[in-house]
Amino acid sequence: MSWLSDLWSKIKSSSGFLFIIILTFIYFSFYAVKGERGFMRYVYLTDEVQKAREIEQKYAAERKDWEEKVRLLSSDSLDLDMLEERARIVLNMVGIDEFVILDETDAGQ
Known about the structure:
It contains 4 helices and no strands.
């Protein structure tokens, strides 16, 4: 036990050693928070992953809509209303007794 108490008394009397320990603690604490793999980077990357998942869900829903439209026009299950709608859009024609109502959401299709 005496060697432990001697070591402790040397550490207490040596202010340089204590100063180095404090600087080492500050250094590692700073990089644990602000470093390349620190807490702040973790929070930033978590936010980026959440945004990417939201974008992925948006595009997955859009893809599902397009797949449904393609399925309705396939030769296996041909929907005549969908075929007529696409023909009118592509040919840019309507009947004499019909009215045209433009929908801005379908303008790019």
